[in-house]
Prior knowledge:
There is one protein chain. The two termini are 28 Å apart. This protein is 38% helix and 25% strand. Helix 3 packs across helix 12 and helix 5 packs across helix 8 (165-175). The chain is α+β, with helices and mostly antiparallel strands. It has helices spanning 7-16, 38-57, 73-79, 81-84, 101-127, 134-142, 144-161, 165-175, 218-222, 225-232, 277-294, 340-349, 375-386, 428-439, 453-463, 474-478, 499-506, and strands at 20-22, 34-36, 62-64, 86-91, 98-100, 191-194, 198-201, 209-212, 238-247, 262-272, 302-306, 316-324, 327-338, 355-357, 362-364, 367-374, 387-393, 400-406, 417-421, 445-447, 467-471, 480-485, 491-495. The longest helix has 27 residues, at 101-127. The strands form 7 sheets. The chain has a 7-stranded mixed β-sheet with strand order 3-9-10-16-13-12-11.
Amino acid sequence: MNYTEIFPKIIAHCKEHGFIFPSSEIYDGLSAVYDYGQLGAALKRNLRESWWKEMTQLHENIVGIDSAILMHPLVWKASGHIDAFNDPLIDNKDSKKRYRADQLIEDFLDKLLQKSIKETEKKAAKENWSPSDEAYQRFLKGNRDAQKHQVLLAKYTEAMQQNNMEALKNLIDEAGITDPETGSKNWTDIRQFNLMFKTQLGSMAETAQDLYLRPETAQGIFVNFLNVQKSSRLKVPFGIAQVGKSFRNEIVARQFIFRMREFEQMEMQFFIKPGTQHTWFNYWLNARFQWHISLGIEPQKLRFKPHEKLAHYADAATDIEFMFPFGFKELEGVHSRTDFDLSRHQEISGKKMAYFDPDDQTSFIPYVVETSAGLDRTVLTHLCNAYREEEVPTAEAGESALRTVLSFHPEVAPVKIAVFPLVKKDGLPEIATQIASELRKNYSVTYEEKDTIGRRYRRQDAKGTPFCITIDNQTHEDQKVTVRHRDSMLQERVATTQLETFFKNNLSSRKG
Length: 512
């Protein structure tokens, strides 16, 4: 099956096997809100812990905090969220569907770029060009789709920089952008939509204070910058990491858990001396890319995408994108935020946010390089990267069967080991139970007796369990068990006394 066609199967697989459920499903659910089941919660926890270890435990100059979801409303005034945290909303009059205008345009531009590449490759095949040839590059930049892309991109960038909604609407009309579902071009005007959820603090409605559910975790780090620096005695450069919930009233929440209204972020703000930001930006961009690869994400499904339009406070920004079944989309962003955040909080709060450098006796407001990854998007990335269907031989000669497998990296797999007695007699369940009990001290282990061994293997393949242990009658004689590898389906005999060493060597290795 084509990769682009598997997304509905992944969604169904997640529900069937206990990864992710629609929230409040017995009441017909709530749009773009999901609950993590027993396996999904474990997968999410493993990814969260891996990120936390990577960012804090393995860096002596990065510490972690856990700030509150509710913050003083002036925090969001300082950050710009109250005045400028908007998305351009557009409706199609025929389909009654609602979209983000910028996403419609960016998707159209991406399609033009892909058409340009395909046309160039087609021409190159006829002319025997290689990508390094001057003729190849000239045709790539000069064909009709490439030129159209350049013109529209320039107009789009200018409209976004000027926050010009009329120009964006004109661009949609000029490009002939259609409703993705119906093909209709009957659009409304574009209007701005603030994404923050508002709530109230207080026991009486007339005296309650307006608050907001945080739309990002970063501001909790910035307002605690001096608290952390002084209490930990850290010197610049140093980082503060945080994992936590954020909330956005998305115009279009779609594509399963890719874009939700309640989601979890993994963010780190790295405080540095002004003038060093580009060195640290490149360092963190490559470090974050390698982390994803180390956990088994296929490198060819990742790419860097520099921002065409920078936020007013940034001097560099690049996304790490993953090729989801619905196209390349942002997985993690790395941003050089200059000194905007600390300066704004100093201005609005009236509290000094400067850092005194004891080495050169200077005082300055640090610049910041941010790494920001969505934990839910990371979960979806690993599900899409791991899911596959393959034909495997059966016991019948010449016949094969389809197996569905999630080939998770062992470090993030929800269940590491499954233990089976071959039959429910001859003392095999007792041996299997004892082995499972010992392994549970260090690993997540499941135990199964029901059905044939083949069916048990298939169930564990679908859950992404890297290893299965089978105890059979021969175990009585040689004190060995059969360990079956998920991805290769190869089996080997391992002494019961060597199981701890075996799994220590096979469950902790990193790729990349």
